[in-house]
Design brief:
The complex is a heterodimer. Chain A is built from eleven helices and eleven strands. Chain A is α+β, with helices and mostly antiparallel strands. In chain A, about 50% of the residues lie in helices and about 10% in strands. In chain A, strands 2, 3, 4, 8 and 11 form a five-stranded antiparallel beta sheet that branches. Chain A has a three-stranded antiparallel beta sheet with strand order 1-10-9, with no helix packed on it. Chain A has two domains: about 210 residues, no CATH class; about 110 residues, Rieske Iron-sulfur Protein. Chain B is built from three helices and twelve strands. Chain B is elongated and about 85 Å long. The relative contact order of chain B is 0.14. The interface between A and B is large, with 89 and 69 residues.
Chain lengths: ~350, ~260
């Protein structure tokens, strides 16, 4: 939410967060290298460069695993929102660690030979038709290409240029990258190292990421299912009773075409807006009203509940929906969005309606 | 119509984290509790992963000192120098010669073949098997010498030991001897194939029925260098029927590339 772009957006929260992540990365790398260099008897020490390549690869996989758990954790518990707010920095940091792994691998294993290092990366193991022997490098390279595109377009400039929906689709490729990384590890390290610990760790990581997404998905699905059948034939839907909406918070409801609407309560007034934030399609309905404006839980972008427009000097806009109180005292929302910038009809449970 | 006009009591206005605002107390407490857990888990994972890495095996690559040897130079089937060594089983030891990097085939030794030489480079060694890593330019590491080397010739007579069926893995000798530790397994397959493509001698790392490890220099059935047909099989478990031939102190396993089968 900015009127001008900065290279990297830092504030106090992000600086503290980034420092913690750097310390965690340094600890992982330091412990990995120290143990790796000393775990075997004298004369059997591993090569420091090979160890470094492995440490960087493990760190990148661990970091991407953490990145993918943040979203569902934040949906389940708002205490994880600080991690989500800073997730982009962790994502870029993950790319940089992966880039170091990639660069060092190409340099150490594929340079100074009779082939171009990048050609060697793709042809030195030619068993593309083999199930067991398939070159794990190809999976890693494809995952790295996705991470590169994501890191290169991570800035808000690209978010605005590509539009939030296109940007979101592009960045959903992170799940493809994660799958490719699991294959990269399964076809490489897991076929080389003998310890079952590595198989267990990769399965655990995969189970955590998949499990958290399934749990949040089921929660959302069951919540939406409870609202099915509430659609009125006249283009309005029955969302809830006014008292179901906590003050300064929202209740969300699915719309017939798949979008969601967020119904906010600010004191005695009830407003409805589309649920997707203009920034990264964040779930506005999981945010709150702060200082009189709807505030996205992901990155703090704000919109006036009356007309969906960001307070000056910002200019982002989301659509409002009209709301009305039914004869049975239920909050009804018009399915059709209002044009951007148009004030929506609202309910005042303290007295007047609209 | 019964309408509840009351307002649900507000949660604390500041209990939702907003990135650009001061973090709510509840989030600060959570983060202060989570930080040590995060750092501890990260440290523990680093320890767990590194602790279970398999033993890369013996092997060293000494780039800190220049190792000098004198002996008879041979380029058949791969560059090597045979050094007189009365303490060795056959009165000599063979030191394979590879260039820096992965392009040993660029070494032009034709003019020096068969003559006594003094060579200097970095020593690569695994379980008594030696290799000298040298620069490309001959004048930087090789000079003819006039020494008496009783019992040592560049190309000693061959002793045919019979045909054997062996199972094991094809390794690039340079990495396997100690340049990369570990220099084996699928994660090293591409590097090994690239090294062998560049002229590094392939070795057959075999174990007999009693688990004893043997490392044999691989050649084609006629005793010449193996071609690129062998590259797809590098690093994978394979078996082959071939002939074992002793040349000086060195055992060669002679089989064409099409004799190898993936197991």
């Amino acid at each position: 939410m900015g009127v001008k772009y900065q290279g990297v957006q830092w504030n106090g929260n992000k600086v503290v967060y980034d420092l913690y992540m750097l310390v965690a990365l340094a600890l992982f790398m330091g412990v990995f290298m120290t143990i790796g260099m000393t775990v075997h008897p004298s004369g059997h020490q591993a090569d420091a460069v090979v160890l470094l390549i492995r440490a960087l690869g493990c760190a990148a996989f661990l970091m991407l695993t953490v990145v993918l758990t943040i979203g569902p954790l934040a949906r389940m518990n708002p205490r994880f929102l600080p991690f989500l707010y800073n997730r982009r920095h962790l994502g870029v940091m993950t790319f940089l660690v992966a880039a170091a792994h990639f660069g060092l691998t190409v340099l150490w294993y594929h340079s100074s030979g009779p082939l171009n290092p990048f050609v060697s990366l793709l042809v030195s193991n030619p068993l593309y038709a083999s199930v067991e022997g398939f070159p794990f490098e190809a999976f890693g390279l494809a995952a790295f290409a996705i991470l590169f595109v994501m890191a290169a377009t991570s800035h808000d400039f690209w978010l605005k240029t590509l539009s939030a929906s296109v940007w979101k689709v592009l960045h959903m490729l992170v799940y493809v990258a994660y799958g490719l990384l699991v294959l990269h590890i399964a076809y490489g390290a897991l076929m080389t190292e003998k310890s079952a610990v590595y198989v267990a760790l990769v399965i655990a990581a995969l189970a955590i990421v998949a499990g958290l997404h399934v749990v949040t998905g089921v929660r959302e699905w069951s919540r939406d299912s409870g609202m099915k059948g509430l659609h009125a034939p006249d283009g309005w839907i029955d969302v809830c009773a006014p008292e179901d909406i906590p003050d300064k918070r929202a209740v969300t409801a699915p719309l017939p075409k798949g979008d969601r609407v967020a119904v906010f309560r600010d004191g005695a007034k009830i407003y409805a807006v589309e649920n997707a934030c203009r920034h990264q399609n964040g779930p506005l309905g999981e945010g709150c009203i702060k200082d009189g404006v709807i505030t996205c839980p992901w990155h703090g972008w704000q919109y006036r509940p009356q007309d969906g427009v960001s307070p000056p000097p910002y200019e982002e806009r989301i659509a409002t929906h009209d709301v009305r109180l039914s004869s049975l005292g239920r909050v009804f929302v018009r399915v059709k969005k209002n044009p951007l910038g148009k004030e929506g009809a609202f309910i005042d449970v303290g007295g007047a309606a609209s | 119509m019964s309408l509840n006009k009351g307002v649900i009591p507000a949660e604390r206005d500041d209990d939702l984290f907003i990135g650009w605002a001061k973090a709510p107390a509840i989030d600060r407490r959570f983060l202060f509790s989570a930080a040590p857990l995060l750092l501890g888990a990260t440290t523990g994972l680093g320890w767990l992963v590194a602790k279970n890495l398999s033993d890369p095996g013996a092997g060293k690559w000494d780039t800190t000192a220049t190792h000098v040897i004198e002996g008879a130079l041979s380029a058949k089937p791969y560059p090597m120098i045979r050094v007189a060594d009365p303490s060795a089983p056959f009165g000599m030891r063979t030191v394979l010669v590879v260039a820096q990097g992965k392009c040993t085939s660029g070494l032009d030794l034709a003019a020096k073949e068969g003559i006594p030489v003094k060579a200097s480079g970095a020593l690569i060694e695994r379980n008594g098997r030696q290799m000298l890593e040298v620069p490309f330019s001959l004048d930087k590491w090789l000079e003819p010498v006039f020494i008496d080397m009783p019992g040592v010739v560049a190309d000693p007579p061959e002793e045919r030991l019979g045909r054997f069926a062996l199972a094991g893995r094809i390794m690039d000798s340079k990495c396997f001897f100690g340049v990369m530790r570990p220099g084996r397994g699928k994660t090293h397959k591409a590097c090994a194939a690239l090294c062998i493509r560049g002229g590094v001698p392939p070795s057959f790392w075999a174990r007999d029925g009693k688990g004893r490890e043997s490392v044999l220099l691989m050649t084609d059935a006629a005793g010449g260098p193996l071609g690129e047909d062998i590259l797809p099989l590098v690093a994978d478990p394979v078996s082959a029927d071939g002939e074992i031939v002793r040349v000086g102190d060195l055992l060669q396993f002679r089989a064409d590339a099409d004799a190898y089968r993936r197991v």
